[in-house]
Amino acid sequence: MDIYLIKLILVHLIGDFFLQPNSWVKDKERKKLKSAKLYMHIAVHIGLIFLIFLSFGVWKMALSIGVLHFFIDAGKSIFQTKKNARLLFFIDQLLHFSSILLVWHFFYKGYLDISYINDIKTWILAAGVLFLTLPTSIIMKVIIAKWLPESDDESPKSLQNAGKYIGVLERVLIFVFIITNHFEAVGFLLAAKSIFRFGDLKEAHDLKLTEYVLIGTLLSFGIAIIVSLGIVGWTR
User: Which residues span the membrane (predicted)?
Assistant: First the structure.
């Protein structure tokens, strides 16, 4: 990857996440375009470009980044509500990184090599990850439905769909560990989950629930391991 692109990404990460206090964020949300913190935030980004590039000769690029950053943040502050705040955060970051790529391409004639998209290995890996998310959750639900304890309904003390998302995350992590040849991390993950689950199961005093959780965990890990090993074999 081009060093100039890396520097621009570094500027954004430092400026948006390290040098933007929460008080600035709240001030921008409350006062919108009248917020002095909005303009201070833009100034920080411009200053960081000069600092990291160690040159004032990049002023055109710094100004371009600053102007684009201003319009993106201003738009976010104007349209943001409590209901769409989470969505706008990700849209905001996507637009920032897109603007960085645009400026980098314009000033440094940079381009990203996306030839890997046409590589069959890329599509096999994508299919494997996708299969281990919701499709595997549905398959597991069908398999172990007959053993579902009556008391295993969504508890008020439990986050909604938390179990499903935990399962998805653990399978994706197993996939990454095996693809990168770190099998020992799979054992660490299983041990960590067992430790966290032990307290809940011990307090429940329910043998059926314990067996149900054990079957679900082993089935989830088993499917993830088999799929991951299969993909490793296919992509060699």
Answer: 87-108, 120-148, 168-191, 212-234
Burial of residue 174 (CB within 10 Å: 0-12, 13-18, 19+) is buried
First to last CA, the chain: 25
Domain boundaries of the chain, sorted by first residue: 3-108, 115-234
Q: What is the mean pLDDT of each run of 10 residues along the chain (236 residues)?
A: 92 97 95 96 98 96 98 96 94 97 94 86 95 95 80 56 88 96 92 73 62 86 96 89
With 0-12 / 13-18 / 19 or more C-beta atoms within 10 angstroms meaning exposed / middle / buried, residue 227 is: buried
Q: Which residue has the tokens 């990857």?
A: 1
Q: Nearest-CA neighbor of 210 among 199, 223, 224? A: 199
Q: Which helix (H) or strand (E) holds 21?
A: none
Cβ burial, residue 45 (10 Å; 0-12/13-18/19+): buried
* Residues 213, 219: Cα–Cα separation, whole Å: 10
Provide the 10 A C-beta neighbour count for residue 58. Answer: 18
| pLDDT in the model for residue 84 | 95
